[in-house]
C-alpha cells in the first residue's frame, strides 16, 4: 500500500522521510479509498493487529481494511493548499505540523482573515472530492483510447439508467407479467413497506417478493433482508433468489449458526441476506432474541397463513413472527387469499403489519362492512352503462370532501373524456379503501394467461387380491370409525400390504401400475409428474419403472433431505439425460413448482379438496405454456370411484380452481365419509352429487358477487401495469447494452466465446484488470441478452444493466482511474498542425446516504467539454462517437514528449475549463433540484391527502417522506462537480 501526500494542486508526492511502504495507522488520521472515491474522506476509528476501520462521515458508511496492502491513500495537504473544515469555513495552509502521525494545519481563514488558525485533520470536511486526471497526464500515465471511450460511455449509460422509472425491475429472470410488475413497482418504492401479498395460488407471490427485495436493495432502502419460510421451502427460496434475481442469500440452519457464532457476538450479523426456517427460530428463545436484535431492514414471511392465532391465544409460531415484525421496519407476508383464510385469520395477518391500526377484531369486522358500498360503486363505474342517480349519490357521499359533480357528469355522458373521468373517480374511491395499501390480492379471474385443465379419468378393474383384502379389512375393522375406514379404502395397496407384509407385491397385479408403464413408454419425450399419497408408494413405483422398463424416474418425498429433494427436482428439470418422471409423495411436493411439465398423473386421490388443488397447482401456475393434462387411473367399485365423481361432478375441481371446496367439504363431510366407507352402497349418491353441485354453483356465484373488485383493480394495476411491462419489454435486447458489455468484457480481459442461439461463454483470463472479477465464476458462465432464451435455459445468466456483471464492471471502471487520462492524434488537414484540443469529462454529483436515492434526480452526470487554446467549447458541435472514430492512438513514449511540450497550454486550457463548466454544471443541478422539489412535493401532498381519508396511511410513512424531501433538497444544494477524465488531442497531417 503506497502512502502519498495529496495536494489540492493535484500533484502527488511521496511522504517525506518515510522509509516504509505504508504509513502507520493512528486513530483520527484521514484517508481516501482508492476504489470508492465517492465515499469522500475517511477517518481511522478502530485499529487492531490485522485490520483497521475507516468511517466515511459523508455517507455514514464504514469500511474494514487489512493493515497492509489496502486500497487506501493517506491524505496530507501542503502549504499553499486551501482546505475546508467540517463547519464549512476555508483556510489557506501556511504550515503543516505532524504530531505522532496526526496532522495539524496552521493558516489563515479566508472568511475572517484570522491568522495562525489551527485545524486538526480530524476536523476536515469529509465531503472532499479529488480530481486526478491531470496528475496522471503530466506524469505520463496515459490510458489507451478505448479505455477513455469506455469510461465516458460508462458515465453516460449509468446516468441514463439511474433515471429510468423502471429501475430495479428489469434485471430479474422472469416473464414480464403485468400484475407482478405493478405490485413490485408500487411496494418496492415505499419506505419500509409493510404489506400482505395474498394472490391466489399460482400467481407468483414469490416472484413479487423477490422483485420488491431487489428494488429495496438497489435503491438503498434496505441493506439487511431476512426471509423466514417453512423448512421444506428453504432451498427453493435460496435457488429462486439467486437464479431469478442474482441475490446470494445465506441459509442459516443449526450448523451454520454454530459456525457463525465464532465470528461475531451475534451470528446473524455475519451476513446481510439470510434465509432460515420458522422452526429453526421457534426452537430456541436465545436464537430468536439474537435474530430480533440483528437490525433487519426487511423481513419476508412465506406461508404466513399457517401462523395460528385467536384472540388471547396466539400460537408460538405467531408470537415468533410478531416479535420479529415489531423490530423490523419492512415486512412482507405471503399468504393465502382472505376468502380462504376466513375473517379472523385475515385479521391476524394484518395485525402483524400494523398492531396499532388492527387491534380490535370486532371493530375490524364492522369496518369491513362499510367498504362494500365502495366496491359496489367501483363495479358500476367499471360497467359500461349509465350511472343511476342512486349510484351517483352513493359516489358523492363516499367522496364527500371534494366537488366531483363535474366529473360525474362527464363520466355519465358520451362526451370525450368519459373513460378518463371514470378512471379518476375509481382512483379516488381506491384511496378510501380500507386495506388497499396493505393488501394485494389477485385472482385468476382477473389475470389472463392460465392454461386449460383437462381431466382424463381411466377406469380400471378392481383386482381380486384387493377385493379379498378389502373384505377381510372390513370384517376386522368393525371398531374403526367411518372416517378411518374411508381413508383406508382410498389406498387398497396399503390394505393389501398390511395383510401380506413384506411378501406383498401389489405392484405385480395393480392395473394402475401396468397402465402407468404403458403411458410413460408411449410418451417418452414428455415430462410427467406423478403424485401419490405415501412415500412408500412412490419408492415402490420408482423401482418397478426402473427395473421393468428402464424408465428414468426421480423420487421426491418427505424422507429426503432438502438437498436430496433439490437434486431430484433438478434431475427431473434437466432436458439432457434428465428423469422422464418425478414420483412425489403428498407432503414431499409441497411448495414445489414444475410448470415446465404439463402432464400430471394422480396415482391416487387425496382426502380433501385443498390437497387436490395443491397437487394440480404444482403445474397450474402462471407461466405454464401448455394445457394441463390431468390423468387419474381409478379402480372401479372403490372409494376412489366415489371421490373422483364427487371432485369432478360435484365440485368441478379438476378442470377449474375450486374456491368452494373446503366449505362444501365441511358441510357434507359426514355423508361423504359414509359413501367412501361403503362404496358398494350407492343409494342416493346421484342426488348427493347433484346437491353438492348446486351448493358449489350457489357459493361460487356468491363469491363472484362478493369479489372485492376495487381491491383487485388496485392489485393488478390495469392499463398502467401493462404499460410498465411494455416499457421493460422495449428495453430488452438493448443494442447499446450489448455493445457496451462486450467492449467492457474485452477491456477487463474476460474471454468471450460465441455460441449459437444468442449465447456467449465468458471465462476468466490471466490478464484481467483484477484477479477475480466480481460475479464471474472461476469456471466461467454462459450469458444471453435475450429474456426468452434466459427463461428457457436455466444454465444461462440474463444480462441487463442491473446484472451484477454489468454493475460490477461499471464500478470497476468508474471507481478507479481506468480511462481517466488519454492522448490521441487527429489527422485533419483542414486544421493547422499542432492544433491543441482538450476533451474533459466533468461529473456533477452530490454525496449523500444511499437511502435518499439522490440518483433519481441527480445521478453522477457527465458534462463534456471540448476546448481549444482560446477556450472555445466545441462539444456541442462535435459529437463524441463520431469524433472518437476520427482519432488515432499514440504510443506512450511519444505521448509523454507531446504532453511535456504543451504542458503550459494544457494548464491554461484547464483554467478556462474550470470557468466554462460552472454554467453547465449549475444547469444540471438546478434542473435536478426543480424535479426533486416537484416530484417529492407532489408525493408528499398526495400521501397527506390520503391520510385524511384512509387510516392505513401510516404517520411514519408521511414523516419519512417529508424528512426524505428535506434531506434530498439539502444534498442537492451541496452538489458539486469534479474533473473525471480528460483527453489531450493534437492535430497532425501524417
Automatic annotation (TrEMBL):
Using the record's annotation, list all stretches that form the Helicase ATP-binding domain.
186-356
What Enzyme Commission number does this protein have?
3.6.4.-
Does Coiled coil appear among the keywords? yes
**Gene Ontology terms for molecular function:** ATP binding; DNA binding; helicase activity; hydrolase activity, acting on acid anhydrides
SMART domains given for it? DEXDc (SM00487), HELICc (SM00490)
Its top-level enzyme class, in one word, is hydrolase
List positions binding ATP.
Answer: 199-206
Q: Where is this motif: DEAH box?
A: 302-305
Q: Where is each Helicase C-terminal domain found?
A: 512-666
Q: Which family does it belong to?
A: Belongs to the SNF2/RAD54 helicase family. RapA subfamily.
State the PANTHER family in the record. Answer: DNA ANNEALING HELICASE AND ENDONUCLEASE ZRANB3 FAMILY MEMBER, SWI_SNF-RELATED MATRIX-ASSOCIATED ACTIN-DEPENDENT REGULATOR OF CHROMATIN SUBFAMILY A-LIKE PROTEIN 1
State the name under which the record lists this protein: RNA polymerase-associated protein RapA
The organism is Pantoea ananatis (strain AJ13355)
